[in-house]
Design a protein that fits this description.
Belongs to the metallo-dependent hydrolases superfamily. DHOase family. Class II DHOase subfamily. The protein is of the alpha/beta class and 401 residues long. The protein contains 13 helices and 13 strands. Helix 2 links the parallel strand 2 and strand 3 (86-89).
Length: 401
């Protein structure tokens, strides 16, 4: 089911096409908003009479996951372990996972919390700070359990107060060592300048930080996490395949910013980066379902207690782990691109990270199931994405060998 895509690269710069390209509206062959709607309608109509009742795909991985720790970890881990073979685990705990030694400890906590018989494998990350050393990157690579380093601009999202204040000014030696160690940088792509409109934070981050970073270190492997805009799509596709990629969440494929306000303020649809306009959502759907190898599954599943979401200063994050595969299948089916689902969920991520693809399979059956209103844990409850709704695709609890 994988589709090979040939990258288009500027002959004048093998790593990055002219950066002005992502500042302008997309050229017709890249992001096309109105043709997308026509494509969805045409393909959906053509496939309606022969819609598949079952999909068997290579077992997926989640390349962006928040597992937390303590009681929350124990409660949410089974939902990811049920459907995913591996996951890149985010390091923004309190305190953050800034050293390899702490990453190894956290990995052991996760393994102890797994359901009996689970083969789920956590892939650990380090939390980049202004004081991270090149030596720590060498230690991380030698550990065999740390697979990436996460950039949180200071103050950008949950537990990011210890993040980076000046990526090129304070972290260049670390980034250069990451190039030597072939260690990817995972980027939360938002500026934190209070003068920048919230809905423009991703676009401005690309202009001010990400584009200069790619120009300065073209060999650095970068994943732009949870992209939300046409600007991000254009930027990713302006870069060399294999060097720059992006994860995409179910919420940014299915929801636009209206979902924050319909029927009153909807705190359980609040995440960072925040949902954007419909034109941006359509651009991301078009890019992901095109077959491009530069996009792969990253749920950004981020559990918070219901009380912390429904308070005067609610937390950002959407808990999608139990429903993610069902929702991704919905997106690809609506786009008439179910034949491209497996590459997005199961091939593009490991190929980018240089890891083997999984051998086992998982089955999605067309069987309506109702999402629970909440999931309970020792300290409270967590509200999942699509709470109380009926979804059409039901992933099997166990993979087929």
């Amino acid at each position: 089911m994988q589709v090979a895509i040939t990258a288009t690269v500027s002959p004048h710069h093998p790593h990055l096409k002219p950066l002005v390209s992502f500042l302008r509206p997309s050229p017709p062959h890249r992001v096309r908003i109105h043709p997308l709607s026509h494509r969805l309608t045409t393909r959906a109509s053509a496939m309606a009479s022969s819609a598949p009742q079952q999909l068997t795909i290579t077992r997926p991985d989640d390349w962006h996951l928040h597992l937390r720790d303590g009681q929350v970890l124990a409660a949410v881990l089974p939902h990811s372990a049920m459907h995913f073979q591996r996951a890149i685990v985010m390091p923004n705990l309190k305190p953050p996972v800034t050293t390899t030694a702490r990453a190894v400890e956290y990995r052991e906590e996760i393994l102890r919390a797994l359901p009996p018989g689970s083969s789920f494998t956590p892939l650990m990350t380090l939390y980049l700070t202004d004081t991270t050393s090149p030596e720590e990157i060498k230690i991380a690579r030698k550990s065999g359990v740390v697979f990436a380093v996460k950039l949180y601009p200071a103050g950008a999202t949950t537990n990011s107060q210890d993040g980076v204040t000046d990526i090129l000014g304070k972290c260049l030696p670390v980034l250069e060592e990451m190039v030597r160690q072939e260690m990817p940088l995972l980027v939360h792509g938002e500026v934190t300048d209070p003068h920048v409109d919230t809905f423009d934070r991703e676009k401005v981050f690309i202009e001010r930080i990400l584009a200069p970073l790619v120009q300065r270190l073209p060999q650095l492997k970068i994943v732009m996490e949870h992209i939300t805009t046409m600007d991000a799509v254009n930027f990713v596709e302006s870069c060399k395949e294999g060097n720059v990629a992006a994860t995409v969440t179910p919420q940014h494929l299915l929801l636009n910013r209206n979902a924050l306000f319909q029927g009153g303020l909807q705190p359980h649809n609040y995440c960072l980066p925040v949902l954007k306009r419909e034109t941006h959502r359509q651009a991301i759907v078009s890019a992901v379902t095109s077959g491009s190898r530069q996009y792969f599954l990253g749920t950004d599943s981020a559990p918070h207690d219901k009380r912390m979401k429904e308070c005067s200063c609610g937390c950002a994050g959407i808990y999608s782990a139990p429903v993610a595969l069902s929702l991704y299948a919905k997106v690809f089916e609506q786009a008439g691109a179910l034949d491209k689902l497996e590459a997005f969920t199961s091939f593009n991520g490991p190929d980018f990270y240089g890891l083997p693809r999984n051998n086992s399979k998982i089955v999605l059956r067309r069987s309506g199931w109702k999402v629970p209103a909440t999931y309970t844990y020792g300290g409270g409850v967590i509200v999942p994405m699509s709470s109380g709704n009926t979804l059409e695709w039901l992933p099997s609890d166990q993979p087929e060998e």
